[in-house]
Design a protein that fits this description.
alpha/beta; Rossmann fold; Dehydroquinate synthase-like, alpha domain; 2 domains; 6-stranded parallel β-sheet; two-stranded antiparallel ribbon; 8 strands; binds zinc ion
């Protein structure tokens, strides 16, 4: 079960100042905000941006295990900092039998890494989940989060609201390949998406209520997927197209923005399986000011075209769950791809 986050003002500073010894994994931006406010400095401070497994192992081995006893390990940042801290805690436990107290403090609510027990790393530039770890505490520091650029926090909504297209894929999988289906889990997932849509103004303004709504959305989604046993209620074709595009361009995008664009593509392709009207979701993204257009994300139409040409083979070779991209109803020929590009140009 995911750890329940604790909410408050300047919790990160309060926590750090109460610790005797800690390692901090973070990024330059949150560090600039925290550093002048803390009285207790970390024994090791690491900025990490590289999630390749070899790099992470080398990072873990750069610590002298003898001075890590009774030490806390804090991850402050976005998904990368939280996943790095999770990896280090997991690896050091495995390798040196060190049980460091892991504390996760997201400085932006952009992805669900601070809540997921699974640890994402990159192996041969592909995201792989290699193990699990449970943090001792997850702290949601409103002031720290509000210090980040609002667009990064707003984008976080897409990574939960991907539910809306994941659900269409799930119904399709039920009907076309008789996949296991549960109406109650389905309805609960749909409610999570609706709650987020209701909180649109608070999310746009990144108020405390908006941050709470984003975190609650992530928390409820993570708990639901853990209960169900996989990410079926939350992740579908919108994520798969993102992975496929990244496999072509090898670029990193703001996850929520890319997922937002792909949600609209999936809704367009799912037709009668679309769980929400396209127009409603488009207006929602517009209202909360998420940069989902290809132009704003610097994604060329040529690369989108390449991804759409590749996606049907990609989902099979990567053994991804059944989605609209597996359906024989969808024929992704040049004419269809032209239609998708035309649709995208109009969003
Ligand atoms: Zn995601």
């Amino acid at each position: 079960m995911a750890e329940k986050p604790i909410f408050g003002n300047w919790l990160s500073i309060e926590k750090i100042n109460s610790l005797e010894k800690y390692i901090l994994v973070t990024m330059e931006e949150p560090w600039k905000i925290i550093e002048p406010k803390i009285t207790q400095k970390p024994i090791f401070l690491k900025f990490n941006n590289n999630m390749a497994i070899d790099h992470l192992k080398a990072l873990a081995l750069s610590f002298d295990p003898n001075i890590l006893k009774n030490c806390s390990l804090i991850g402050i940042g976005g998904g990368t900092s939280c996943d790095t801290a999770k990896f280090l805690a997991w690896y050091l436990r495995d390798k040196f039998d060190l049980n460091l107290d892991l504390l996760l403090i997201p400085s932006i609510i952009s992805v669900d890494a601070f809540l997921c027990s699974s640890i994402a790393v990159r192996i041969n530039s592909k995201v792989k989940y290699i193990g699990e770890i449970h943090p001792k505490e997850i702290l949601i520091d409103y002031n720290l989060i509000q210090s980040a650029p609002p667009f990064l926090n707003r984008a976080g909504v897409s990574d939960t609201i991907s539910i809306i297209t994941a659900l269409g894929d799930w119904r399709l999988a039920r009907d076309e390949i008789n996949e296991k289906f549960n109406q109650d889990v389905f309805n609960r997932a749909k409610k999570i998406a609706k709650n987020l849509m209701e909180a649109r103004t608070e999310i746009k303004d990144v108020t405390e209520k908006g941050i709470k709504a984003l975190v609650d959305g992530f928390y409820n989604e993570v708990v639901l997927c853990e209960e169900w046993g996989n990410a079926r209620p939350e992740e579908g074709s919108e994520h798969f197209l993102a992975y496929c595009l990244e496999s072509i361009t090898h670029k990193h995008y703001i996850h929520g923005n890319l997922i937002g664009m792909n949600i609209l593509i999936s809704l367009f392709l799912q037709e009668e399986y679309a769980e929400f009207p396209i127009e409603e979701i488009k207006q929602f993204f517009e209202y909360i000011k998420i940069n989902i257009t290809p132009e704003k994300q610097h994604i060329s139409y040529n690369n989108i075209r390449k991804a759409l040409k590749k996606i049907k083979k990609y989902v099979i070779s990567e053994k991804l769950p059944y989605s609209i991209y597996n359906s024989s109803k969808l024929i992704l020929n040049n004419k269809k791809i032209d239609e998708i590009i035309k649709f995208l140009k109009a969003i």
